[in-house]
Backbone:
């Protein structure tokens, strides 16, 4: 009964899982700690749960989002993605800019939170 050996594929699978788990975690590195909007961002949540913070969201240019028939869609990584209704943040936008909190998974991108701005 010697030492247990792991095949290379198993080690690669475990390493990949660790990388993907880390990429799903929040990335608030403290650079927004003194922002007057930090507590507001930290409190944002959609029907899908908490959005986390400004550090986790991405600003979306006006040309990369649209509203049609009461629903939103956003262009990320060159593709249009429908925003689920329960991902839309309905509180007034104190930041003013459109933001999205995407979750990048092996099967594609899903939207955890979407904060519409004013199209100018």
Residues:
């Amino acid at each position: 009964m010697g030492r247990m050996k792991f095949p290379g594929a198993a080690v690669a699978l475990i390493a990949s899982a660790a990388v993907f788990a880390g990429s799903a975690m929040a990335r608030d590195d403290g650079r927004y700690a003194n922002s007057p909007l930090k507590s507001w961002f930290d409190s944002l949540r959609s029907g899908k749960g908490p959005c986390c913070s400004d550090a986790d969201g991405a600003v979306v240019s006006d040309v990369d989002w649209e509203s049609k028939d009461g629903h939103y869609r956003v262009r990320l990584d060159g593709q249009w993605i429908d925003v689920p209704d329960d991902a839309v943040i309905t509180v007034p936008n104190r930041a003013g800019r459109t933001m999205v909190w995407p979750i990048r998974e092996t099967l594609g991108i899903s939207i955890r939170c979407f904060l519409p701005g004013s199209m100018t």
